[in-house]
Design a protein that fits this description.
about 230 residues, 2 domains, five-stranded mixed β-sheet, four-stranded antiparallel β-sheet, about 25% helix
Length: about 230
């Protein structure tokens, strides 16, 4: 290839290589002509990614699936002659917004609990507490910064102090809908307003569980393509 290129330059009447002190130098800058790579397809679900791979729309080449995070999965090919990969398709999860470490008023918090979290026992207890809080302030019980009590309706016509559950085990919707949402511990706090907030307390362990759930789902869904599909997380 280099010889053919040199002959082409000679035909143009342009010197191609000069020898100086027994070393060869090109008289023109050279640029590598790389093999073209396709643009990446974007989907918003694992099922869309699986459908594409099963269709073999672009052929049945070997593919690597990388579970990059609980909300992103990438699919790419083997390296080509330029040591580059075709990034074939990427799936980004659509998840509802909930801001941890930030206080919400009780009405907004109630709505977020119902729309952004999977139903479980602790979520139902929190809904009951938050939904029955009176406008009086939140009062502390104890001095360890953990336990709290709020003024809430404890019956049809009675008002009393209700202990706030803490910590709570919840399953926020924070990964692809096709897989089980991991449960993890949260610190539930309230303050004057009244306002409510959740603080993550599992050190990010839920992310590993979510990624494992995604890998298991893909492995099960693509069992028929197991000979050409490799999954890492």
């Amino acid at each position: 290839m280099l010889k053919e290129f040199a002959q082409y330059l000679v035909k143009l009447g342009t010197p191609d290589v000069l020898t100086v002190n027994e070393q060869q130098y090109s008289t023109q800058p050279l640029q590598l002509l790389k093999k073209p790579t396709p643009s990446t397809i974007g989907v918003r679900s694992l099922s869309g990614l699986v459908d594409y791979i099963q269709s073999e729309f672009d052929g049945s080449i070997p593919l690597m699936i990388h579970v990059e995070s609980p909300t992103r999965v990438k699919v790419f090919s083997q390296t080509n002659v330029d040591e580059e990969r075709d990034h074939v398709i990427v799936a980004d999860a659509m998840i509802p917004e909930f801001r941890f470490d930030q206080f919400y008023d009780t009405e907004a918090f109630n709505i977020k609990l119902q729309s952004c979290f999977v139903k479980n026992e602790d979520r139902d207890i929190m809904l009951k507490v938050v939904g029955s809080i009176k406008e009086e302030g939140v009062q502390e019980v104890g001095d360890d910064g953990i336990s709290q009590a709020v003024t809430a309706r404890t019956g049809v016509a009675t008002v009393g102090n209700v202990k706030v559950p803490n910590p709570v085990e919840l399953a926020p919707r924070r990964t692809f809908v096709e897989v089980e949402q991991p449960e993890s511990d949260f610190v539930f706090r309230m303050r004057q307003g009244p306002k409510c907030a959740l603080f993550e307390a599992d050190g990010g362990a839920w992310e590993l569980e979510a990624m494992e759930n995604i890998a298991d789902y893909l492995e099960s869904s693509l069992e028929a393509q197991a000979n050409r599909i490799h999954i890492i997380s």
